[in-house]
Amino acid sequence: MRGGSGLEEAGAANAMNGANAANAISGANTVNAANAMNGANTAKAVSAMSGANAGNAVNAASIASAANDRFAADSASAREIALLTDIHGNAAALAAVLAELDRRGIRRIFCLGDTVGIGPDSNEVLALLTARSGIAFVGGNHEAAVLAAYEGRPAPAGHEGEREHHRWLAQRLDPAYAAVMAGWPRSLAAGIGGRRLLLRHYHLDDRQEFLPIDASPSVEALDRLYGDAPFDFVGFGHHHIVHRFRSKRRLYFNPGALGCCDRPVARCGLVRFQSGGIHAEVLEVPYDNSAFLRSYAELGVPGADPILKIFHGGQNEKRM
Question: I need a surface site. Which of 33, 125, 149, 319 has the fewest CB within 10 A?
Answer without folding.
Answer: 319
